[in-house]
Amino acid sequence: MSGAHFCAACGEIQPSAPGTDYFAFFGLPVKLRIDAAELEKRFHQLSWKLHPDNFVRATEKERELSLALSSELNDAYRALREPLSRVEYLLAHSGMRKEGAHKQQAPPELLEEVFELNESLDELRESRESGGDAAESGGIRAKLESAEKNFAEKLEESDAQLDVIAGEWDAAIDAGADDAARRALMTKMNDVLNRRSYIRNLVNKVAAELAV
Length: 212
Hints:
Layout: H1 22-25, H2 36-50, H3 60-80, H4 83-93, H5 111-130, H6 134-174, H7 179-210
Helix pairs in contact: 2-3, 4-7, 5-6, 6-7
């Protein structure tokens, strides 16, 4: 066998080097616009090479490495196969993504819309609990459905913003950008992700209330 996970001289399976990221695991540069077909191809190739069935007659150490690397391979593929999870992984690996570490704050430009949304949610709950008439409840639900659609569109806008920054990141990598330039781009990504996460929670909250 050959490849980064095997010794070039003896062919013995090797552990990942300390600090190896998921991009390097697949032999890819740290870029965000990845050819999905190429990634899947490399995943299947490595799955076959690292599969425990290939090490049934190997040493205990090699069998353990096979299991560990196969598990790492699956984690790496899950992280990199989707654009959003790819960005999240890059930031987390760089120590710049800690979702949940601080209470989420509404983006300033959305404060008024969020206030109105929460008012409508309270009205729907009160109407439900008091047995309000169908017309009143229906009007509130229609208002919430419109708000849900509006925020779902904002989610799509956030994804489009991330894609633009991903292109800027890849261009910076190709140009050999310094650490400061890379961190500036990661900060932009993190800001968009925070906004997206807040909006996603709003959409989920509205959907849950409308499902009752």
